[in-house]
């Protein structure tokens, strides 16, 4: 059974930065496409970023492009999301998600494409 555990969230001021981490266990991490989603109160869960199995390709939502960076360390079974220049509207619970794929450059944006999910980490940005 694959388990994903996020960490690194917190309460920050607008303009600050955070690094979110997601540690995986129970599977072959290097075969997983990993993604970050977020859900703000009263809103649907939305795609934030995805990173391919090797980390060679990434995809970002337009709202975070240029501010957020996804990376991964397959030796540590961990994926990261560096979040810079945070805005009040970035306030949400951030989830990591994963799915196994045979394709090294595959990326997916839809939540239902990912069978494995973490419990989430809260990011709150104050003005």
Fold and architecture overview:
The chain is globular and about 45 Å long. Strands 2, 4, 5, 6, 9, 10 and 11 form a seven-stranded mixed sheet that branches. A four-stranded antiparallel sheet has the order 1-3-8-7, with no helix packed on it. The N and C termini lie far apart (40 Å). Helix content is 0%, strand content 50%. It is mainly β and 127 residues long. It contains no helices and eleven strands. The model has no long low-confidence stretch (mean pLDDT 96).
Notable traits:
seven-stranded mixed β-sheet, mainly beta, 127 residues, four-stranded antiparallel β-sheet, globular, 11 strands, single chain
- What is the percent of helical residues? under 10%
What's the pLDDT, averaged over the residues? 96
Contiguous runs where pLDDT drops below 50 for at least 5 residues:
none
The number of helices is 0
Major sheet details: 7 strands, mixed
Distance between the termini: 40 Å
- The succession of helices and strands, N to C, reads EEEEEEEEEEE
User: Which structural class fits the helix and strand makeup?
Assistant: mainly beta
Question: Looking at the structure, what is the overall shape?
Answer: globular
Rg over C-alpha atoms, rounded to the nearest angstrom: 13 Å
Number of DSSP E strands = 11
Strand percent estimate: over 45%
Secondary structure topology:
Layout: E1 3-7, E2 10-13, E3 18-25, E4 32-39, E5 46-51, E6 58-60, E7 68-73, E8 78-83, E9 92-100, E10 116-117, E11 121-126
